[in-house]
Amino acid sequence: MSTLIPKENSKVILxxxxxxxxWHTDFKSMAxxxxxxxxxxxxxxxxxxxxxxxFEDFAVKRTAAVTRSHSAGPSRQRTSTTTTQEETQQDSxxxxxxxxxxxxxxxxxxxxxxxPLAFKDLTAEAQRAxxxxxTIYQHDTKTYKDQEDHIYKFKEWLMTSISPHYRQTCxxxxxxxLKWYKNLKDAAGLDTYIETNNARRQYRDAxxxxxxxxxxxxxxxxxxxxxxxxxxxxIAVTKTAVEWFSDLIGTLEKILPSWSEAYELTRTQEVExxxxxxxxxxxxxxxxxxxxxxxGWKLAKxxxxxxxxxxxxxxxxxxxxxxxxxxxxxxxxxxxxxDGRGIEAKRRKREEASRDEEASSTNPTSRDQRKDSSEARxxxxxxxxxxxxxxxxxxxxxxxxxxxxxxxxxxxxxxxxLKKDSSLKRDLERWMKDLKEKNQD
Length: 441
What we know:
Blueprint: H1 20-33, H2 37-40, H3 62-72, H4 85-88, H5 124-159, H6 164-170, H7 177-188, H8 192-206, H9 216-232, H10 241-252, H11 257-266, H12 268-273, H13 278-295, H14 332-339, H15 342-362, H16 364-371, H17 408-420, H18 422-440
Helix pairs in contact: 8-9, 9-13, 11-17, 15-16
């Protein structure tokens, strides 16, 4: 049990009503572990200490009953019962083998009329019945002792998890644990209305993007915590994946535009079926962040790691190339900067790329001049990777090298852009036609 109790440096201390919600979560967890939560909720009662079965409740032998009746008078005759001849001939030395406390052997110096009843005074049938009653008593005693141990451990935790003020004013030693909880709730608890409003406010605050990606790990923790609290308080937005996931993507688009778009596509079915768990999403975010840190890439606003030119430029903005070094010599910082200006920047780059390609088809000189410009400034209108749209392997797979394999979520981005961008569709038809004619020649 002690290994499950929170360490001192991680324990939440109830100092004021502001600590109530987080403290109460720990309180409930400990109460469940110590098996007293139902009692604190008033759903069950505590076990009473069991009483040892007395010998007087069982039939005694005739000889013992007669002897005791002569000594005690008519009132003791009620404890005797009629026994058979076989029972009266039982060996008077028969004893209970349950331990020193229950032995039936009594000193012969004590007259039978003055000593208390012993196990050997019971009839054979009564001894068997007493054995059964004793087994039940031992079981009840063990259960009661376990309950007392749990209550002791819980009270020990409780007294160290609240401030001295609340300990003095709310934990009266003679009162029950149920009363202690009521006193604490009256002194520091929050009503349902305030708790709900706090949960809603924390959820809204958690959607504010971090100032930089160095704080992204802490931001993930805060978002998951806010989601957990809001979910427990039945905040409506957290019950529907379409709503809370949309809110999250809206935040991620401000700092991770390409990654968030790709991730949204991969989780679309789960969102529509309302089977996506917020904990799964938080775990995915941590995995991506840890992966980039492990690779040693410097995170910049708007991108998880660099994108590449040359052979690696066929990776979409949401994908990571296999090598961390750029053969063109363009730094990761510059690529991240070019990539990370948000949704509007990406849209402008796509429009610029479209104009460049249209101009290059009619002006060879201009095309040659732009060929020398940085590849990082080009954004594919199809897969949104950093390369010329006309050289996109997803749009024109016939141009791809042997062994190249398209990625499913990137293909979804291409299909979506083809559906939304009619000019891209027309350009693709024209490029495919030109490529076909070139191959025929």
